[in-house]
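fyi for ur records
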Amino acid sequence: MRSVSPTPRLALVTVLLGVAALVLPMAVVLAAVVVVIALTAWDARAARSAPVVRRTVPSTVARGSTVTLTVASDVRRGRVALRQPAPPGLVVTPDAEARRGRLEADLTGVLRGRHVLDPVAVRTYGTLGLARRDHEVGDRSELCVVPDLPAAYRLARARREGRLERTEGRMTGALGLGTELESVREWSPDDDIRQVNWSATARLGRPMSNQYRVDQDRDLICLLDTGRLMSAPIGGLTRLDIALDALTAVAVIADDVGDRVGAVAFGTGVTRRVAPRRKGAKAVVQALFDLQPGEGDSDYDVAFRSVSTKRSLVMLFTDLMDGTAAESLSTAVPVLARRHAVVVATTLDDELESYVTRPPRSPSDVYAASLAVELRSEREKVVLQLRASGALVVQAVPSRLGAHCARAYLNLKKMARV
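which gave:
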């Protein structure tokens, strides 16, 4: 694109010539017009060459995170303006022209997936500032917006610092024989009575507990539902976006504790598959980050049949709001739970829950509250069926789903269920 256009300076000169025509002889004005036209043509010729532009931007950005976009040209200050167009899903701030031959802006990933960053829009000015030309410089480049990796790394750091497992709703169950004694420490109120080291307690005169080393090299398989129900919006995100954030958090923590992690994405059939591997979080994120919800109902039987027969922790990220769709899940889970530890993770809708808890102020609020109670009742019925089938059900609001899934995973490892 090399379109020529006048500048505000040329418009001002034109206005001045019009005013001069009222007081000066017409011959003088016409001569001045010819001179201005010639100078404008010469200025347009001077602005015809596009400068060399260098653009620096990462190829990957986490959704909701901001990176620095830098564009620099080889033209001196005042003769070039730079602007970076942003496609839907990306936000460039500020989006105005930079007139110093260098553009530094913040680029934020808003929508997860693959986006194409257009060439840099360059506007060159002539020496006199009477004409300008517009250019597109550089190539189109792909930028990938992945799930919320910073939040996943924060959870992994919290686990290493011992802050992640200190939470309400502690799971109980047999510690299992697969764990190894790591150390003896002071007893804490959250410890199971079977962790108490009675010999050390009698010798030191205060309660002491055994600290067990969590087994490593276990398989974690994340099943991601991409059916039509996962397109439902919650707070500007889809349920699939929220599920992918939680899945990413669990995968990063699995890397951190030394387990193998893999994934299967499914809708009406299996669409993506990543075999379990050590340090597999990166491969899982790269394989799943650009998935979008489908239009059909999810086939849980097909997804469960894709899981290997080796005992693993299978964590399913799905939606439980539709009772009819959840019935097929309830019938499929018992078969899977015979061989594997199964966790079903689902998102709670903050707005829906608020209708149940806040006092109604209008008849429409009463209707909305009754509908919310009915939907919650159907969901709880499905949850009870899944728990009776041997699955652990994790329910949380979007901002807490990743942390709750991570705690469920670590607690199952602690109890040697994996």
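Residues 225 and 318 are 5 Å apart (CA to CA). thats all i got for now
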